[in-house]
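Long-time lurker, first post. I've been practising inverse folding by hand and with some scripts of my own, and I keep getting stuck on stretches where the structure tokens seem ambiguous. Below is the full token string for one chain I'm working on. Before anyone asks, I'm not after the true native sequence, just a reasonable design that respects the backbone. If someone could post their per-position residues I'd love to compare against what I wrote down in my notebook.
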């Protein structure tokens, strides 16, 4: 089968690598210039986008911010999975909030701002600690602004007056005093079969994911069941096909949905070595109408992002259970350059391996690594 992925970054690359053993031919689309490229080599291929769509059995995406005109053509082909509605929900926080509300799924108290006048009195309604998020194109901490006190609002008003809030509204969310950040990844195929991975515990720094640990420490059956219920309701409502990521806050034993990502996700990279079937293979299985793979997993696994650096000793590969994935990008501040996966026999073993890794890595680029080790010992 031929699979065409919209987006030509590391997620398309990892889909290609997962698809090869299944005899799936995966190509990618550079959506900036509408060229068809090899997902690993990044070389431009001779066929046009129109030809590649015709040749493909399945069209899918590696990220949700694909230009809508390209998605409309993909949807018209009848080959797009997940469907257009699902991708647009992931790309637009207003659509996302409406979906969550329609299903009575808990999320942070919020207001949708389409006019600067709506900021008047907002601290009385939501409290002084508010995070403002652009409804589109915001990720990894971009397109976000924080208010700690009411005194921050005049400066934010000056910023927002320069934006077209009618075209791209802002979602103002009350900052939730959550215990921890979690994510659930699962897959659903066209026949309605669903598999999910264990909840992962995520640590962010300056708006970017730095580490994911799975299963999340102190994970109860009740919390996993709550997450499964949220995933199932969302996936069935959307008639979703593929891997879906649900980012969550845990607060007093209750899960609040933070964001949805209609695709394979950074917090699921640990599954490449820590689960029976990784997220990339399960996404391809789902969109290609193959049976979904088992999500059975080991005692403890983790993913550590390599962000903004390439100066480290690869001798960390001498540590058992450590695996290295490099994306082949030019170094840039805050850019995800690759990741390290770690598998362990216990959380204590995982913490020890984090400590061992710190001997080989420039720790200014891994500011949460040792703190995470302390949390899980």
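-- Answer (accepted) --
I ran through it position by position. Result:
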């Amino acid at each position: 089968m031929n699979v065409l992925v919209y987006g030509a970054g590391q997620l398309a690359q990892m889909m290609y690598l997962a698809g090869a053993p299944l005899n799936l031919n995966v190509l990618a689309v550079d959506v900036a210039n509408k060229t068809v490229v090899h997902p690993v080599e990044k070389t431009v291929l001779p066929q046009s986008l129109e030809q590649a769509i015709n040749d493909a059995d399945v069209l899918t995406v590696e990220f949700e911010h694909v230009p809508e005109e390209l998605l409309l053509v993909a949807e018209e082909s009848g080959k797009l999975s997940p469907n257009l509605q699902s991708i647009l929900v992931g790309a637009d926080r207003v659509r996302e909030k409406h979906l969550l509300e329609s299903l009575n799924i808990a999320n942070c108290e919020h207001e949708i701002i389409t006019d600067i006048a709506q900021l008047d009195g907002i601290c009385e309604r939501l409290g002084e600690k508010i995070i403002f998020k652009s409804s589109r194109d915001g990720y990894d901490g971009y397109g976000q602004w924080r208010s700690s006190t009411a005194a921050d609002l005049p400066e934010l008003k000056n910023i927002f007056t320069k934006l077209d809030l009618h075209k791209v509204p802002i979602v103002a969310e009350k900052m939730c005093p959550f215990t921890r950040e979690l994510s659930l990844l699962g897959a659903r195929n066209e026949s309605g079969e669903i598999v999910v991975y264990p909840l992962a515990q995520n640590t962010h720094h300056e708006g970017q994911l730095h580490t994911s640990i799975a299963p999340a420490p102190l994970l109860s059956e009740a919390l996993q069941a709550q997450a499964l219920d949220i995933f199932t309701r969302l996936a069935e409502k959307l008639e979703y096909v593929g891997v879906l990521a649900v980012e969550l806050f845990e607060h007093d034993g209750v899960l609040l949905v933070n964001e949805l990502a209609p695709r394979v996700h950074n917090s699921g990279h640990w599954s490449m070595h820590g689960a029976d079937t990784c997220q990339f293979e399960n996404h391809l299985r789902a969109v290609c109408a193959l049976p979904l793979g088992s999500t059975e997993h080991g005692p403890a696994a983790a993913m550590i992002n390599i962000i903004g650096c390439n100066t480290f000793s690869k001798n960390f590969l001498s540590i058992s259970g450590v695996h290295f994935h490099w994306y082949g990008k030019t170094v840039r501040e805050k850019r995800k350059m690759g990741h390290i996966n770690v598998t362990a026999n216990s959380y204590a073993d995982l913490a020890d391996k984090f400590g061992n890794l710190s001997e080989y890595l420039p720790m200014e680029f891994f500011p949460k690594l040792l703190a995470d080790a302390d949390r899980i010992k």
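A couple of notes from the structure itself: The longest helix spans residues 221-238. The chain has a mean pLDDT of 95. Happy to go over any region you disagree with.
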